[in-house]
Amino acid sequence: MTKxxxxxxxxxxxxxxxxxxxLSWSSETGDGDADVSVxxxxxxxxxxxxxxxxxxxxxxxxxxxxxxxxxxxxxxxSEDRISVDLSVVPADVTRIVVxxxxxxxxxxxxxxxxxxxxxxxxxxxLLGFSIDDAGAEGAFVFxxxxxxxxxxxxxxxxxxxxxxxxxxxxxxxxxxDDAADAEEAGEVTGAVEAVEATEDTPxxxxxxxxxxxxxxxxxxxxxxxxxxxxxxxxxxxxxxxGPGGVAVPTLVLPAQAAxxxxxxxxxxxxxxxxxxxxxxxxxxVRKSLAENDSWRSARLFPVPxxxxxxxxxxxxxxxxxxxxxxxxxxxxxxxxxxxxxAGRMETFTEVSLPYGDAQRGSTRKRPDGVIRVERxxxxxxxxxxxxxxxNPLKAQQVQDYLDIAARRGxxxxxxxxxxxxxxxxxxxxxxxxGRRKHKVVLWHLSWAEVAHQAQLLIRHEGVGNAAxxxxxxxxxxxxxxxxxxxxxxxxxxxxxxxxxxxxxxETLCQGDARAVDVVESWERLVRQVCLRLGGELGQKVLxxxxxxxxxxxxxxxxxxxxLLCREGRLQAELRIEGxxxxxxxxxxxxxxxxxTSVDVPAPDQGYPLTWAKRLIRQLYEAPADLHxxxxxxxxxxxxxxxxxxxxxxxxxxxxxxxxxxTGFRLSLFKSMGATRxxxxxxxxxxxxxxxxxxxxxVVTPLERRLAPVRPASQSQSQSxxxxxxxxxxxxxx
Length: 733
Description:
By secondary structure, the protein is α+β, with helices and mostly antiparallel strands. It is 23% helix and 23% strand. The strands form five sheets. It has a seven-stranded antiparallel sheet. Strands 1-11-10-7-3-4 form a six-stranded antiparallel sheet. The protein has a five-stranded antiparallel sheet with strand order 5-6-2-8-9, with no helix packed on it. Strand 10 and strand 11 form a beta hairpin. Helix 3 runs antiparallel to helix 7 (466-480) and helix 4 packs across helix 6.
């Protein structure tokens, strides 16, 4: 679609009552990100109340009409996904706006491949819209769904706001107050302003605000031919800016707090909080009452007696599905990504279903599990096929379940195993009959993702009550037990040993298909590391792909395989929310060593010797074998040494011949395992240990010493350390 164009959804698909929206972008520097939001607007072009604003702290509508599904890594960046059920959107909602915003001071022009896609309930792509003219904008409206003649249509908008979230929110009646007396930072509230508007405001170069004000004179005036925002002018925040001089509500930011004492003094009840404290479990376990260490706590899901793979699969399926049905936040978190509505969930195991034609003699098939969700008398159903340990999925078995689901009108088949799915590299080859009117979608869920979501809920985001938190903790203990078979990706594949031997013998040639297999396994391992680390930290951790979004996954993996053949190295970069630097991971198969590192930028003020001394002081808790290297503007690599050698002589980090210092690189090295990963000395375990050691012994102590003292009213009640801004690592103070 082109900017300003619109299309009726019914003309694109017969199955467009529930749609999946994806907002995607990428960044060549690896640190680009944005937060999506959805607004439900009434016939006046404003939200009806603050509850109509959906964002990361308010991700699901009570009626299930909107669900923010969260970010998912792609081959060239990340994609934020949203599920919209148009069939249950309230009748007084006429428009659904899909937008995104960046942190203060960041621009959308620094991101590549800004794109919105819409798919139907069956996962078939309906439309796409790319934004190629982003610049200084801090917020963007990508598109909107709107009612016309009883039917839903979509309009490609692509309008930005240089005033960022403040401008976007003000235009639609949202009032965000980050006053210092808020109980927690990031408190978002909303209020509706009765501003007259007509229904048929065109969206193009004109304002996205109320009708009758072409060009938009409000605080959120879109950038473009209409001209700059009136709120940027000398009139200030209090200047009338709506139709007929009606004042549009102001978004109060910390920098404006001193200039708006009247608004700060408003009673808290006027702005109901959308951030709710929930039940989490402390990370530090209370002292045990056991007489000695040999006593083991009674567990809800015992695992020591599991003997065979069949027992493991049956037990794992039953344990997971039962917890999903009993803990609504957890069940919804896992199924929303598969298109399931927000409703009453029931789960079943070992269900017998007929398969085949009655005339030819049908047989019975038993999927490992069934998930059913009911809302408004309608059922959403998915069949579940489970694998544990290193057992692969069987193509014919999955194909049979897809056929059964299609015949019975089910919506999805979900495969669950230790492997991690990659774009462009399916775990199992199946055929989807496009002639069938009813579409069945095949999804894959890894055990690492299950553990990740459970960890996020019980340690960071919280659940509804203590019993639910305890259930999730028991599930997590079960998944992490050595007998469960649900340990996640744990085998680098059949090509791993031959490729390592060929590298040692210097016989690995470019174009070798085995190198591509190893690159894919490495990518799966990196995705799993991101899930595990993100669950522990309570932060988004995503792999960085420094390529354009249009890059073909197969071609990209082929290029990485050629690099492996030439240099014998596997490389990855992880972007961690709240950490400005990128955590780099390199596996050198020639030397058998793993390297974890992060670059710390040099401060803007001060003297190089002061920077070096301060950095060494701040690393007093770090291991003595930590490597510190000076980064230079012109020559790249500067002096380097271990922390043990540099502690008495920090001046050794300064270049002898002068040169501009741009930062310092902190690195730890570790020997890698030689096996496929099933043993303690395995390569996969080595990677996990290397990342854990670097984060725990280098990044966390450094961040803890440098974390700014926050007012008690803005403190976060999280048990795990939260990464702060690492760019201050060697800064003043």
